Amino acid sequence: MSEIGEGLRRAAEVMDRVRADCVWSQQMTHEKLVPYLTEEAAEVIEAVESGSAAELREELGDLLWQVLFHSAVSDEFTIDDVAGDLADKMTRRHPHVFAGETAETSDRVLELWNAAKADEKRERTSVLDGIPAGMPALARAQKVLGKGEKVGAGLEFAEEILAAEALEAAGEEELLPASEEELGEALLALVALARVRGWDAERALRGRTRDVAEEIRAAE
């Protein structure tokens, strides 16, 4: 069982004290805290990629502080409400653990998860609902394409990739990155090209992703 004890309680008490006695903290709102939340989440990712357990431990603490901060700012809920709602949600979304369903494969786990999520979000009318508009362009593009596959939309990219792979197999020039490292090099090269030509790479990808999103909604 995960260890939960004095440390978590102390963190909540420290937040209560800071909100009570720190003028800067008292002036914070959910909106004003957003940049800090974005930064801390990015630092968690960096710590994961660094492979340092000490750095990850520290950055997870900073991210937890943001959760505590938002909960302290709110007049509508507490950190205990947040934790309780999370426990309820995770219980619903793991029926193979808590409700007698069976899941022998990861695919089945995801199927049960998505079914529970769809039941919770019945007001949603599109597979794209719930994808934050503020996500970084690259992460959002990956998410939109993944959702599009479920309704058979946005597949022209897959067709282009298959065509390129066929050319490579026929002995033509290598057209596609062969590893994640090469993919990174290709992406960076495209960003460099955008910079030289005065283009905004982030805006360009956001715009093309919007086009694909419209195709997906039309297909639905």
From TrEMBL:
SUPFAM superfamilies: all-alpha NTP pyrophosphatases. Residues 29-98 form the NTP pyrophosphohydrolase MazG-like domain. InterPro entries: MazG-like_dom (IPR004518), NTP-PPase_MazG-like_N (IPR048015), NTP_PyrPHydrolase_MazG (IPR011551). CDD domains: NTP-PPase_MazG_Nterm. GO terms for biological process: dATP catabolic process; dGTP catabolic process; dTTP catabolic process; dUTP catabolic process; TTP catabolic process; UTP catabolic process. One of its GO terms (molecular function) is nucleoside triphosphate diphosphatase activity. Pfam families: MazG. PANTHER family: NUCLEOSIDE TRIPHOSPHATE PYROPHOSPHOHYDROLASE. This is NTP pyrophosphohydrolase MazG-like domain-containing protein. It comes from Microbacterium faecale.
